[in-house]
Design goal:
This protein is an all-alpha fold and about 325 residues long. The chain has helices at about 5-10, 35-70, 75-80, 90-95, 100-130, 135-145, 145-150, 150-160, 170-175, 195-220, 220-230, 235-265, 265-270, 285-295, 300-329. The protein has a domain at about 105-329: Orthogonal Bundle (MetI-like fold), CATH 1.10.3720.
Length: about 325
């Protein structure tokens, strides 16, 4: 037999005398493997079902229910009967045209921007500081996590005592140093209350920023800094050309999560000022809470809550797109 006639058989024969099939039929599993694949797929779904059920019950249903409620006239009576009349966009029009909405929106923006800037800058500075090896490094980093681990209502109670005008620890400390003569109304002044609340929220959010950013810094190879130092990239230049570009994906995650979390902050504001004085610390989150659980206007409270969700989603989408575009460029 000639070499030309033997060539197709030699190409289709593998080591050990097993012939490999060519063409579309090569991807089809054997009949013996099909039951095994079905069992594997069944086990995958069995592991996935509990998570799907949990997400549906505790996340999906409340979101859908809140959206439906925002289009109905829910009161204390209709809340229990479930026969609330359909009012369309009336609740949205009411809350958006309210005189308090513009104040709440402005306070929400100021509270979010101030908190995010303070938390991120201090958290990044501490993360860079703790990159250095020194005694008690790990213990100090662990202690900085305490504000994040404490319940928010406990933190607000402690800070309410610290910032009290008459017997607060901060005013006593400043008075002993001779800086002030009379107590500063940190939580009762319309010009200082929002600043005080932002400061407390910064204190609470620093551990989150520190932890995530410190983890991102640990992933940057030391070889990059060594190579950069040969080209004169040390100090600020090393941070600008090495640290920041490598840390940008982590920064995006921290900022997006921080903004989404800060927009819905409720416990701290209620514990410190309850939205006062004169609505100077009233945000969209606290206004939604007051409409639902103080005035029992559940439909309007749900509508305002949905507005806050939309604001969070819009910011997250725009920021992630901008960050992705910057990385691509």
């Amino acid at each position: 037999m000639s070499l030309a006639t033997d060539l197709p058989h030699s190409e289709g024969r593998a080591a050990g005398g097993v012939v490999k099939a060519h063409g579309p039929g090569a991807e089809k599993p054997s009949p013996r493997r099909r039951p095994r694949q079905r069992r594997e797929r069944l086990f995958q779904w069995l592991f996935l079902v509990p998570a799907v059920v949990y997400m549906t019950l505790f996340f999906g249903y409340p979101v859908v229910k809140n959206v439906v409620m925002s289009f109905q006239e829910y009161t204390t009576s209709t809340f229990f009967t479930g026969e609330a009349p359909w009012v369309g966009f009336t609740n949205y029009v009411t809350v958006l045209q309210s005189s308090l909405f513009s104040t709440s929106l402005l306070n929400t923006v100021l509270f979010t921007i101030g908190s995010i800037i303070g938390q991120f800058v201090i958290g990044l500075a501490l993360a860079i500081f703790f990159q250095r090896k020194f005694p008690l490094n790990g213990i100090l980093r662990s202690l900085l996590l305490l504000p994040w681990l404490l319940p928010l209502i406990v933190s607000s109670a402690v800070w309410r005592w610290i910032l009290d005008k008459d017997s607060g620890a901060l005013n006593r400390f400043l008075g002993d140093l001779g800086i002030i003569d009379t107590g500063i109304p940190w939580l009762t002044s319309t010009s200082l209350a929002l600043i005080a609340v932002v400061g407390v929220n910064i204190w609470i959010g620093i551990p989150f920023n520190l932890t995530i950013l410190y983890g991102g810094l640990q992933e940057i190879p030391d070889e990059l800094y060594e190579a950069g130092s040969l080209d004169g990239a040390t100090g600020w230049k090393a941070f600008r050309h090495i640290t920041w570009p490598m840390l940008r994906p982590v920064v995006s995650v921290v900022l997006v999560l921080g903004v989404v979390y800060t927009l819905k902050v409720l416990d701290i504001i209620l514990g410190l000022t309850n939205g006062g004085p004169a609505n100077s610390t009233q945000t969209i989150a606290t206004q939604s809470y007051n409409l639902s659980f103080h005035e029992f206007k559940f439909g309007e409270g749900a509508a305002l809550g949905n507005v806050l969700v939309v604001i969070s989603l819009v910011f997250a989408v725009l920021y992630l797109r901008a960050s992705r575009r910057a990385v691509d460029e």
